[in-house]
Amino acid sequence: MPKQKPELSRVEHLATDEDPFHYLACGLPNVYLVGIKYFTCEDGRVIAEIPAVKQLMRLIARDLVERPDSLSGSEIRFLRKRLGKKAVDFARDLGIEAETLSRYENDKQEPSESLDKLIRLLYAISSDDPELIEQVRAILDSLLAAWKAGPTDVKIVKKIDNNAWTDVPLAA
Questions:
Q1: What is the pLDDT of residue 171?
Q2: Residue 22: how many CA atoms within 13 Å on its side-chain side?
């Protein structure tokens, strides 16, 4: 008769505002969760019960796409993996070499501002997030409306005063 392993004891915790759960398993170093249960085992393991994981990942990705500062390498990797893309395919979609994407994802090189924006746009239009898709649609609609309106002859007038340039209000 085989011996049964003794069950390890574990302690239940609730992540709170004061003591949130550091969610490293998502692949990002700066994600913390509140309101979940997690357990610490006597062997040192930590096991978390994360409900609605797909929704959580979508919200994290939306935060990354919408925030104003540059994406880090781990954030680029997170967005790529959320799309289910292999690095070589994602790099091809961006018009860069896979080795370049690897340098970005490993923080060996920073992408240009335009590539950072392209990564966000590619994620937004390729994701299953209806809110991001709607935001992209609204931006495209406003651009199309401006293009359909045609060129306008608007004067741009600036004035120098004490070695500083200012706008000159145009008469209506």
A1: 65
A2: 4
